[in-house]
TrEMBL record:
Species this protein is from: Arabis nemorensis
Region feature Disordered, mapped onto this chain: 1-102
Gene Ontology BP term (one): mitochondria-nucleus signaling pathway
Protein name in UniProt: Smr domain-containing protein
Domain Smr: start-end pairs: 773-862
Assigned protein family: Belongs to the PPR family. P subfamily.
Composition skew (Gly residues), residue ranges: 52-61
Alphabetic keyword roster: Repeat
DNA sequence: GTAGGGTTAG
């Protein structure tokens, strides 16, 4: 049968675990000292080498002698690891070419969590110190008043221990100004250098924790100049302070300067340096050099060293490296704590390995480490980011059941889930619950609401929430403004977008890559590619480097406006569009007149803006222009794409020049751009770019496109394995893009092969049952290939003599990928397809996105003699220039 | 000296 896969080896994939745990086991999970052990027969008893991923490939060949030992000690991976070769710390390599990056995040620098209280430790302060602290907290008077307060306690406080206690505690309450006053007073009255030194390091560390790195630096430099700052403690404290604020280069400088002060870095110093490097977004390999260095200098890493290294993996999404580190801790007999587990879990969640994350979470009670609010919010967020919202909410239920109180972060995590899903009732319930728990809404809370409402096009609510935010004196930040500018400009509300941008500038904030990328994307989506290019140029001039997201938007803009307008022309020109079975391949109606209006190259369009010198920012000018044009914006004529093609090639060129690594979204964007090409020759130029980026992805696309299905299927499987490890929407977008491209160029059997593989791997949720085909997550090519496959499947049911369900439905939704609310592109495509093959489906009365028929009518149709012929797909025969073979 | 949340691409 035409719809069956070719005879080639299809490697088995891991069994997919749909539901992470049955309900009855959930109930047994108690937050008690002696939790019941989980029995999960569906879970692997130990980790198989194949589940270890690429991080271990090429090492430790042969059998692992530590297998049983590993099982006994609960090791996460079994490959023997040997330090100090640092092999377990290496970043795992993809099976695909090194450029293929499954990671999507472009955020490397961690968020700063300032103001975390210093965990309690044995203090040697006196009761008088507590009294003084109490007075200091209550105090709200002027400078003279605090001086008097200090004087009144001067004779009673016992040296630096008391003062250290007070300034740390003041720091825990955010009262850094009072802390500095206490510090200055204490240092002045203290004669002994070493006591002054203790005070200085305590002060620097307190300021560092509060994010007051500038003041910390002053304290440090003064202490150095006055001769009591040259202690390992003070240096470690300032390194840590720099690290917390993301100044890892300064942290390293200070560390390197220690030698010249005659100081030997100790364990705390190294831990601070490693942590600073990680927080500053340094690559694991570089951070590991400090790890090597400390051991060379005879300092043995401890639990915190490893926890900080784990955090580096988590920021990079290197979950395999994190597992290796975790195992290495066990090998070395280093105790593991809640930080270890939470950081490991974060790495695994960020690596998208949610089933493994759940597994580890479930093992924690048996290790006597009870999951806390951080553990749960980490995994809940992981599920949400993987698109597994039900699992996220189930876990939230478990957390509540266990009586773990929610905090600000976990409330915001949940709120953002509901807001993203557009479930505003639930979101507002969370807001209410927050209020009754005494947690005030912060910028994160408001930003989640603004983004949620904005993405649903509910601009009135956006305005109300933003007004409330200001009323409540919650300061809008860069993320707030980025969100607002993004939703307004994507919605075409240029006036509002411009006002927000003006306000953003007036409060002294500086645009960043995200803000620019959002704007560029909006312009591209609205067909304003020229303006997008000019902004790309503008941001570069401002010293803001575009990233892969920026470029993906630009690539995705290719052919978009032309296609849309030409389609509009086709529809206006009488052809009902329904008969237009495939709008793409031979769109001969497209006018081929060249035009100069598209810029030839990035960076050449700024000459105009230089001539028209105004005080307004380029962004404001663009918005102003768009507002002035209003709805009367003149539609561009359909153009031949050679101009656009050279523009996009220039974009690729720039990407290479800036060494911006593509990721799977880039590949999807290129494939989508191919689907918008009017000729195979044009597409082949884009595919050549794909080849330069990633030869294996190219190999699969090329092989399927040329009809060499059998030859590339093994390679395709390995590619699909990698894609499947990503979150659901990333994976489905790739399948959609690949299928569309194949369908567009007439490789319909290849397209069907890919969608069937996608179905097998559950890339799209619940695609089909015997009674219903749900296409709402699919692109037009994927949907069409799927309709054929589903109908063939229904036909085999009839053939086997079984009865069909009474009612059969095909759901198209609104066509998720149209990105236009209410734009039923997918519905129209499917309707045309069904009509074209004479399938007896009609639009359901109550739902225009749903096609229905009765089982008996469909059965009769399937039994007709000509039906099979229209159901079986054939490849279109086109004269195709051959593409270069993959390397 | 160590952990979790909010913004951009399909």
């Amino acid at each position: 049968m035409a719809s069956t896969p070719p005879h080639c080896s299809i490697t088995a994939t891991k069994p997919y675990q749909n539901n992470p745990y049955p309900q009855n086991q959930l109930k047994n999970h108690r937050h008690s000292p002696n939790p019941p052990k989980y029995h999960r027969p569906w879970a692997p008893q130990r980790f198989s080498p194949s589940s270890l991923g690429g991080g271990n490939r090429g090492r430790g060949s042969g059998a692992s002698p530590s297998t049983s030992a590993a099982a006994a000690t609960g090791q996460l991976s079994q490959t023997p690891t040997r330090f100090p070769a640092l092999s377990p710390l290496q970043t795992p390599k993809s099976d695909l070419s090194p450029d293929f990056s499954g990671r999507r995040s472009t955020r490397f620098v961690s968020k700063m969590h300032f103001g975390r209280p210093k965990t309690a430790m044995a203090t040697r302060h006196s009761l008088i110190a507590e009294d003084a602290l109490h007075h200091a907290i209550q105090f709200s008077g002027d400078e003279e008043g605090i001086h008097n307060l200090l004087l009144s306690f001067e004779s009673k406080l016992c040296g630096s221990d008391d003062y250290t206690y007070i300034l740390r505690e003041l720091g825990n309450r955010g009262e850094f100004e009072k802390a500095v006053r206490f510090y200055e007073f204490a240092v002045k009255r203290e004669r002994r250098k070493n006591e002054q030194g203790k005070l200085a390091s305590a002060m620097i560390s307190t300021l560092g924790r509060l994010g007051k790195v500038g003041i910390a630096k002053r304290v440090f430099e003064t202490a150095l100049a006055d001769g009591y700052g040259n202690t390992v403690y003070a240096f470690s404290a300032i390194i840590s302070a720099y690290g917390r604020s993301g100044y890892h280069e300064d942290a390293i400088k200070v560390y390197k300067s220690m030698k010249s002060y005659g100081l030997r870095p100790n364990l705390v110093t190294y831990n601070a340096v490693i942590d600073a490097c990680g927080k500053g977004g340094m690559e694991f390999k570089q951070v590991a050099e400090f790890f090597d260095e400390m051991q060379r200098n005879g300092v043995q890493p401890d639990r915190i060293t490893f926890n900080s290294l784990l955090a580096v993996c988590s920021r990079g999404g290197s979950w395999e490296a994190a597992r290796n580190l975790f195992d290495e801790m066990l090998n070395r007999g280093i105790e593991q704590d809640i930080f270890t587990y939470n950081t490991l879990l974060d790495a695994i969640c960020k690596g998208g390995q949610m089933d493994l994350a759940f597994e580890i979470l479930a093992q924690m009670p048996a290790k006597n480490i009870m999951p806390n609010v951080v553990t749960y919010s980490t995994v809940i967020d992981g599920y949400a980011k993987a698109g597994r919202f039900n699992d996220a909410l189930t876990l939230f239920g478990e957390m509540k059941y266990l009586g773990i109180p929610l905090d600000r972060v976990s409330y915001n995590t949940l709120l953002s889930i509901f807001a993203k899903l557009g479930k505003f009732e639930e979101a507002l319930d969370i807001v209410k619950e927050m209020a009754s728990a005494g947690i005030r809404k912060d910028a994160v809370t408001y930003n989640a609401l603004l983004g949620g409402y904005g993405k649903q096009g509910r601009y009135d609510e956006v305005k109300t929430v933003f007004a409330e935010m200001k009323q409540e004196h919650v300061l809008p930040n860069l993320l707030t403004y980025s969100t607002l500018i993004d939703v307004y400009s994507k919605g075409g509300l240029y006036k509002e977008a411009m006002e927000i941008f003006r306000e953003f500038k007036s409060v002294g904030l500086r645009a960043d890559v995200v803000l620019y990328s959002a704007l560029i994307d909006a312009l591209c989506k609205n067909g304003l590619v020229e303006s997008a290019v000019s902004l790309l140029d503008e941001m570069t001039k401002e010293g803001i480097s575009p990233n892969v997201v920026t470029y993906n938007s630009m690539i995705d803009a290719f052919g978009r406006s032309a296609t849309m307008e030409c389609l509009a022309d086709i529809n206006e020109g009488g052809a009902s569009g329904l008969e237009e079975e495939d709008e793409s391949f031979s769109s001969s109606s497209i006018s081929l007149s060249p035009s100069n209006s598209l810029p030839l190259a990035v960076g050449k369009v700024d000459s105009l803006s230089k001539l028209t010198k105004t005080e307004d920012h380029q962004i404001v000018k663009i918005f102003g222009q768009l507002v002035a044009e209003g709805n009367n914006r003149t539609k561009k004529d359909c153009k031949q794409d050679m101009q656009e093609l050279s523009c996009i090639l220039e974009v690729f060129h720039k990407m290479h020049e800036l060494e911006i690594k593509p990721n799977v979204v880039t590949f999807s964007a290129i494939l989508n751009a191919c689907s918008r090409c009017n000729s195979f020759e044009e597409a082949s130029m884009l595919l050549e770019e794909l080849r330069l980026f990633d030869n294996k992805v190219y190999g699969v696309a090329h092989g399927l496109l040329m009809g060499y299905r059998e030859n590339v299927w093994v390679q395709a499987q390995s590619l699909f394995d990698e894609v499947k490890a990503m979150d659901g929407s990333t994976a489905s977008a790739f399948y959609n893009a690949l299928t569309d491209m194949l369908w567009h160029f007439g490789q319909k059997r290849g397209a069907q092969l890919v969608v069937l593989e996608g179905r097998r791997r559950k890339v799209w949720e619940n695609v089909w049952s015997d009674s219903c085909l749900d296409l709402h997550l699919m692109s037009s090519g994927a949907a069409r290939a799927m309709v054929h496959a589903w109908l063939l499947n229904i036909r085999s049911i009839v053939d086997e003599g079984h009865e069909l369900p009474k009612l059969l439905s095909i759901l198209t939704g609104w066509g998720k990928h149209s990105k236009v609310m209410g734009d039923g592109t997918l519905r129209r495509v499917v309707e045309a397809l069904l009509r074209g093959m004479g399938a007896p489906f009609h639009v359901a009365k109550c739902n225009v996105g749903r096609f229905i028929s009765t089982g008996s009518v469909v059965e009769a149709w399937l039994r007709e003699s000509g039906t099979l012929k229209v159901l079986v797909l054939h490849d279109d025969k086109h004269e195709q220039a051959s593409l270069p073979l993959p390397l």
